[in-house]
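User: Is it possible to get a 3D structure for a protein together with its bound compound? The compound here is 5-phosphoarabinonic acid. I've pasted both below.
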Amino acid sequence: MMRIDLRNTSAERLGISHGVELEREFKAWAPRLEQAVSELWERRPDPSAMLGWIDLPDAKPAAQDIASFASEVSGQELSDLVVLGIGGSSLGALTVISALQHPYRAIQQQGEGLRVHFVDNVDPDAIKGLMEVLDPRRTLVNVISKSGTTAETMAAYLAFREWLERALGPGFAGRIVATTDPESGILRPLAERRGYRTFTVPPSVGGRFSVLSAVGLLPIALAGLDLDKLLEGAGRANDTVRRPLAENPILQAALVQYLQYRRGKSISVLMPYSSRLRNLGDWFVQLWAESLGKEESRSGSRVHEGSTPLAALGATDQHSQVQLFNEGPNDKLIAFVRVEAFASRTEIPDSEPELSELAYLAGKSFNRLINVEQVATAHALAEHARPNYTLLLDELNEARLGELLQFLMWQTAMMGELTDIDTYDQPGVELGKVYTHALMGRDGFDEVREELAEHGLS
Ligand code: PA5
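Assistant: Yes, that's possible. Here is the predicted structure of the complex:
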């Protein structure tokens, strides 16, 4: 089960300047938020609304196809999967796989599922380094690009295709799987021409909302994880979000985010207390930033909306960012994620019995220590009138993670509704792409190239 503890955001706890009168606000906002959910729910079938992510938990046939491909692959002599993708085409699978596979699967020789490596940047050393350590004869490559044109991903494709072909000859085509839009872009026709196995990203699902489409599900299945449970958990969040606000933690969290943002808490921190959830922060940062940071409102006024997301990790960042959270500007809302029962119980042994200074740790567990640290940090922040809330997961498994991801996608969607911007576009990243294409000598970009040369850029 997933629960929320909002007490440290309340006016009762923090005072009226930094806290929210939860009961009063919940009552006042319930009609508007419940109505917004109904409207989004109704608009799901309209492909231009980009709400296809809501239906992904019910897209069982697509998930079954992926699962059967994964079981075909598990019969082959493969050890590694390389995922080529960036932004929404990489972060979802990275989050789920790093949360649920063995924490050190990447350095295990034998283990559940393939070892998965993400090429989500065009760093020459990282790309060359990965090719040096992997065996192409035992590696599958999944190139993922919804648009099928992204420069970083297509450059990585060119490199890994050659790497595979050099080792395997014409058989290389059996080792590349492409995940892309059913029609647009160059990846789809290319994959068909080369005979690659392909999976489809539904056109109504945007990159950062695509973790539960083939974009995320294929690498997740190849990592040996259970798709049905992941989708079942996400379906639970879809049920939760349609409840009245008084019993709806998703709408409550979205509303607290909105009210605190309007009161100047312009930074939204996500701080899981679990190393396995380290990448959840990056996934959240991309989802929140690219969805909500917008120059224009839906009616075209210039608004420059956007709360700034920040990823932190407990307990590690208690020795880093928490100093700023407690004593710096009071401009943050901190959302903790706490796992109540970890997969294992790891004791802290009494291995230095003569050291009385360590007696308080000895004989306890790391499980207790990490969660006590979370409770202590949340309380200390509240004592400094710093608003924070906790999302509690009873355990960390596919179902709970699916629920958490869908929870955070709904929270983002609702924040977009409340700030009245288009959650699903990203015009602010286009200009940089155009300049990159021009500087890399792409045909059709001569004019931009000349313009850049005037600024001394070539
Ligand atoms: O959320 C988004 O839309 C983006 O972050 C995309 O996922 C990212 O730009 C990669 O795009 P594509 O999948 O088209 O290569």
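The mean pLDDT is 97. The longest strand covers residues 332-341.
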